[in-house]
Amino acid sequence: MLAISTMWNALKQQDGAALFDDLKNLGFETLELSRHLTPDQIEQLKPYLRQNPPCSIHNFCPILPGTSQAAAEQDKILLSSLNTDERAEAVRRTVQTMELAVELEAPIVVLHLGEVDTYDRSYLMRDLYTYGEREFEAFDQKVTEATEWRKRKETKHQDAVLRSLDELNECALKMELSIAIENRPHYYQIPNFDEVGLFFEEFYGSPMRYWHDIGHAALQEKLGVCWADAWIDRYAEHLVGVNLHDLKGLEAYHAPGTGDLAWDELFEQLPSDVLKVLEIRPCEAEPVIAARELCFNYTLRGNDAG
Which superfamily does CATH assign the domain made up of 2-305 to? Predict the structure, then answer.
C-alpha cells in the first residue's frame, strides 16, 4: 500500500473537506493523519475518513491545546518525561489519539517516544558536515562527545518510556490496535538504535511494532550517529510501516527523487508488502505525483522480483 501524509497540505488547507480532496486527487490509495491537524480539521475530515479509513495516525493527533500547527513537531509533553504529571498527561493524550484511530478504523498509531534531557550538540555535527569536514577526526570526536553525554542521562528516560509503553501496550491490546515506535532524526531523541531492541525485548509479544522513517535514518547517517540500513536489517521482524521522504543536504521531508537519497537501493531493502507513506513538506503537486510514480514503480519491481 502506498499512502500520503496530511503533512503535505494540513497547514495550507484549513478546510477538512478540501484537504481530503486535494490529497485524494494526487492518486494515493489512502491517507496518513499527521500531527499537524487541528481539532476542527479532524471533525471536518471524519465523514470522509469513515468511508476511506486512514492507514495510520501519528501521535499526537489532533494537535495539543495551545500548540500551533507549525510547532506541532516540538512536543510540549513527552512520554519520556521524568515529571510524573507530564508523563501521565502524555499517556492520556496518546490514548486519545488511539481512540481516534479506533473510531476511524486506522490500524496503527505511530508513537514519538520523547527524548533524553541533554544539551543538544547537533549544531556541532551539522556545522562540520556543512563545511565539508564529515570525514575528518574532529567530526567523529563531536559525535562521540554528544552520544557520551546522552548516555550519562538516558537510563532514567528509558525507564520513563518503559512505564509509558507498559500502559499504552495494555490499552492497545484492549483496542485491538497496533502502536508503532518510530526512529527519530536527532541523536538525543528516543529511541536510538539500541533502545529499539531494548523496548522490544521488554514487550515481546505485545501489540507494539517498529515504524521506520527513511529520512530520519539517512539524516542520522549523514551526522555520523548510525548507519541508515542498520535499522531495517536489525528490526525487520517488527516492521509495520515506513515513511518516505528525501534529503537535500541535511534538509528533510522533500519528495522522493528530488534529493540525495538512492531510492533504487532503499527499495531493495524494504519488504514489498510493508505499508509505505510519503511524508512530504508543502510543495507543488507535480513533484508529489512524480514521487508517487517513482515509489509505485519500485514497489512493483519488488513484487515482480518476489
Answer: Divalent-metal-dependent TIM barrel enzymes (3.20.20.150)
Q: Does pTM top 0.85 for this prediction?
A: yes
Q: Rounded to an integer, what distance in angstroms lies between the CA atom of residue 6 and that of residue 239?
A: 22
Residues 51-68, mean pLDDT to the nearest whole number: 94
The residue ranges of every structural domain in the chain are: 2-305
Closest by CA to 106, choosing from 240, 14, 272, 286, is 240
Q: Is the pLDDT of residue 35 over 80?
A: yes
DSSP per-residue string spanning the chain? -EEEEGGGTTTT--SHHHHHHHHHTTT-SEEEE-TT--HHHHHHHHHHHTTS--SEEESS-SPPTT--STTTTS-SS-TT-SSHHHHHHHHHHHHHHHHHHHHHT--EEEE---B--S---HHHHHHHHHTT-TTSHHHHHHHHHHHHHHHHHHHHHHHHHHHHHHHHHHHHHHHT-EEEEE--SSTTBS--HHHHHHHHHHTTTSSEEEEEEHHHHHHHHHTTSS-TTHHHHHHGGGEEEEEE-EEETTEEEEPTTSSS--HHHHHHHS-TTSEEEE---S--HHHHHHHHHHHHHHHHHHHHH-
Predicted pLDDT of residue 73 = 84
